[in-house]
Amino acid sequence: MTTTTEGVRPPADRYGRARSAPGRGRVVYLAVVGVFLALIAVIGYLYVSRSTVSGEVVSFHAVSDTQMDIRISVSKDAGRSASCTVRSRAEDGSEVGRTTVTLAPGSGDVTTVVHLRTTARGTTGELVGCS
Predict the structure, then answer these.
(1) CB-based contact 78:105 (threshold 8 Å)
(2) φ, ψ dihedrals at 88, nearest 5°
(3) Which of 3, 6, 67, 77 has a CA between 20 and 30 Å from the CA of residue 18?
(4) 130, exposed or middle or buried, with CB in 10 Å at 0-12, 13-18, 19+?
(5) Are 101 and 112 in contact (CB under 8 A)?
(6) What pLDDT score does 39 carry?
(7) How many helical (H) and strand (E) elements, i.e. helices and strands, does the chain have?
(8) Does the keyword Transmembrane apply (predicted)?
(9) One digit per residue, pLDDT tens: the chain, 131 residues?
(10) Looking at the whole model, is its pTM more than 0.85?
(11) What are the sequence ranges of the domains in the chain?
């Protein structure tokens, strides 16, 4: 004897309403999340790509126990000002001096010497960053 359950429905009040298959709601949700993530990616790219200031230490020289001369080279847009932070460290790695210099708008590539006052003899000159 074969039993078929085709066409037989359970009582509606016993099992609740039948659920529909995932469809339009899920697709709309995934589309909104995808557009949001794409927007975040575009904003992040634009923010990072606008930062066109870069620099490097060309040389450094300990003038005395209280002064370090640091020569930096900075590349920036010609019409834009930039600020760069430099520091010096002692032999034990402790920071003995730090300052921020501002480079006025003008030429794109600038090389300058920063005269940094230190609290002890510095053994290294570092460019922390430019913006």
Answers:
(1) yes
(2) -130, 145
(3) 3
(4) buried
(5) yes
(6) 92
(7) 2, 6
(8) yes
(9) 566 667 677 666 676 666 666 677 888 889 999 999 999 999 888 877 765 788 999 999 999 999 999 999 999 888 888 999 999 999 999 999 999 999 988 788 889 999 999 999 999 999 999 98
(10) no
(11) 21-49, 54-130
Closest by Cα among 108, 99, 57 to 81: 108
**DSSP assignment, residue 76?**
-
- Strands of the sheet with 54-64, listed across from one edge: 54-64, 67-75, 109-117
If you write DSSP's letter for every residue of 105-125 in order, what string do you get? SS-SEEEEEEEEE-SS--SEE
Single out the residue of 112, 120, 118, 130 nearest to residue 59, CA to CA: 112
The residue whose two tokens read 């940094």 is 116
pLDDT at 10 (0 to 100): 65
Q: Which residues of 29-49 are buried (b: 16+ CB within 10 A; e: fewer)?
A: eeeeeeeeeeeeeeeeeeeee
State the Cα–Cα distance between residues 72 and 63, nearest whole angstrom: 16
